[in-house]
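Co-fold these.
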Amino acid sequence: MTNVQCTQEGCQVSVSGKCLEGFEPVDTCPYMSVATEAEGVLTTERSPGNFIDLPQGEALSEDQAGTVASNGLSRVVILAGPVGSGKTTILTALFEAFLEAPFGNYLFAGSQTLIGFERRCHDARVSSGRLVGETAHTSVREGIRFLHLRLAATEKGTSTRKHLLLSDISGEIFVQLRDSGSAVRDMKVLGRADHICIIIDGDKLLEPETRHIARNDARAILRSILEAEVLSPSCRIDVIFSKWDLVVSSKQSTEVISYVEQTRKAFAKVIGERCAVIFHEIAARPESKALPFAHGLPTLLRSWMTEPDIPQRRTLYLTDAENERELARLVRRVAATPGLEDAFNVRWI
Amino acid sequence: MSAGSRLLLLGLRGSGKTTYLAALWHLLEANETRSALTLDSLQPDRGYLNRIRNSWLAVEEVGRTPIRTAESVTLALREQSTEKRVEITIPDLSGESFRLQWSMRKATRAYSDYVNECVGVLLFVHPDAVRKIPLIAPRNGSQVGPSVEEIRPWTPEETPTQVQLVELIQFVLLLRKLADPLRIAIIISAWDLIKDPMLPAAWLDSRLPLLSQYVRANPQELEFRAYGVSALGGDLKKDREKLLSQPMPSLRAWILERALEADGDLTAPLRFVLRLGMNSVAA
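Predicted complex below.
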């Protein structure tokens, strides 16, 4: 025995047998489900011949992102940081900013992941019914996913469009990277990154009990990635102090800002000459009015969208004692990367 | 211009697609006012157009277009300045079918086949049906959200109008096989509701900024113009008597584009998407 059910508001098909949308037979309507009671389970049958599937609009898999990246100019950005440090909120705030106006001198030129963005934006919007804006944590089960924006730079009347592929990866995966060199080497996507963004949770910097762990977790994740030598030579590092509104509005802001200065130095030491690095203070979706919405994001976006000056001559100053091992690695990398010889100028001091 | 150019009326439910078509048909068929495009000959099947035109003449709701019974309209037109004959096909698709594309990620095979060779799009937006979803205000900001928490899960319907419209255009570009840029006339319907002196392109920038950026940022694939159209001539309820008392109904409808002065020739968006010579609104 079968009976038809419709998900369309106001449709009386189950009572009258007449489809609100005028489909005949009624089970060809895309809103219609045919419940087969005999089988004891509800199966949904639609007429595949009448409809075509459109792209789902959800976040992209690694392979899908690779296909997009190969179709025009592209930048691949990996946002790395512990759970709750604000990775996804940076992505949703960026999208919300484009909903209001051009942003950071870029125009929105399309997205293959509009559903993915909308889904992630929901918990910070009034339509969620929440009193305080939130961002759902990205599940480790989702694996490696990317959100996509196509942006156009409009300068001097010319328009250049680039695909921006932004990772949305659970913080738990980065804890694994912190703890295991083989986990870093298994994460092939790191080798395709144009930017690695290490996020330090600004909220955690406020209290002495949490600040050292926050700094060291982020530094350890970065060091683990750098030491595994999986990054491309042109990859750049962004170190992001997130939730900056909490830092500036904190009673201990002077002390915290001084701690942040030390943190910068610690990170600069870890990164050394290996990659170009930029530090950012970000308040993507401030909890207070201390800073405006998307504070710091225009600069971060411009950093992502700008091509690095590669090949560029970089001088590495190495000392005998600490860097014999370092040099051996460099020689291996130069040998393995065609065209890189000119990019480095190694001197012994 | 090749015969039978395929045009697409795109827009969500209640965006004014059918009302525009009804007014356009009346203007063309009655031939009471100046128009750069005129009716060359009557097409064989006029039943649907005459039905919706009668609703328009009586200042009544034209009614909701169902998905299944969407009508396809063919018009044989003549460009006055060149005497060139232009035949166009315009299916009056239901807004519901576009909502289906967004929320269920499905399109009818007939739609897909049609869009394959679609020349241009008339995209409709009703100013009173633009859905924006504000962010929850920061803690010490003014309260925008609810006062009692009642958490609701996300559904595709919980999406700003402009995001849905961008996706619908992306789908058209994905399905379309023609190489030349797609021309889009963005028609802001019920322009009589816009009380501030403002041009349609500026309204688009301020009310639908994502859509505005999208159509500007892709000149290789898209060419667009924005129009403000009052196809009915006023509010269906408030202005009904005044509209009915107009001795020449063709004078009710008006359009504006790059100047604040309105014009009565509703064919300007058609001329733009069809790449005809005189394709601006004559102010």
